[in-house]
Amino acid sequence: MPEGPSLVILREETTRFVGKEIARATGNTKTVDLPSLEGQKIVSLRSWGKHFIIELPHTVLRIHFMLFGSYRIDERKDKPPRMALEFTDGSELNFYACSVKHIEPDLDASYDWDADIMSPTWDAAKARKKLRAAPDMLACDALLDQTIFAGVGNIIKNEVLFRIRLHPLSTIGALPAPKLRALVEQARQYSFDFLEWKKQFVLKQHWLAHRKTICPRCDIPFSKGHLGLTKRRAFYCEKCQKRYG
């Protein structure tokens, strides 16, 4: 599943489509009347967390890449697209294995931009307040809560918890104040590290915990499991990642 930094890259790569007119819209989505998009010009392209947002004069589309979604710009995959947009200048934007749906046009009412981990308006204090309001939440679930950390996915979760030496089964209410601050700060910092490494095509080279078998600090096997309410796979060290609560 693409995480927030990957959506920032998509947004940056598609900036040139703003203002272009859709000549043809096709695909196998059942949730959008694709022919109705034809003749409309792209008003804006935005991202929020793991959502890619296409604003048109008469509607707004939200694309969520789910677990296996992908996209291609000016090229196609050898599989049917969920939605393919061809523009009057010959360029094209193709989306695969994703969710496409109409959303309310008032984006400021639909989205809390301060919760987007990659947003310039990201509000760390607001994130801490939301966390303190959920003292029984597990750390592994907290990082994946899109109302608190929009854009954080499983890679960032595992790497942040390892970076700050926090056990994924720690409860938020049991965390000392410095550890809670570190959780919030590093969720954002690692997301921007992720962005730079992704752009340089070296992201996996920097993984210390995600999909790893041996702890690089303790030289012992990582524990693995599908933890928390989210049941997403966790990789963690029982020795150097302290469990609180």
Automatic annotation (TrEMBL):
SMART domains tied to this protein: Fapy_DNA_glyco (SM00898), H2TH (SM01232)
Organism domain of life: Bacteria
A GO term for molecular function: zinc ion binding
InterPro entries the UniProt entry points to: FPG_cat (IPR012319), FPG_N (IPR035937), H2TH_FPG (IPR015886), Ribosomal_uS13-like_H2TH (IPR010979)
Biological process according to GO: base-excision repair
Catalytic activity: Hydrolysis of DNA containing ring-opened 7-methylguanine residues, releasing 2,6-diamino-4-hydroxy-5-(N-methyl)formamidopyrimidine
Alphabetized PROSITE patterns for the sequence: FPG_CAT
Hydrolase listed as a keyword: yes
Annotated ranges, domain Formamidopyrimidine-DNA glycosylase catalytic: 2-94
Keywords assigned: DNA damage, DNA repair, DNA-binding, Endonuclease, Glycosidase, Hydrolase, Lyase, Multifunctional enzyme, Nuclease
Annotated CDD domains: BaFpgNei_N_2
Similarity annotation: Belongs to the FPG family.
PANTHER family: FORMAMIDOPYRIMIDINE-DNA GLYCOSYLASE
Protein name (database record): Endonuclease
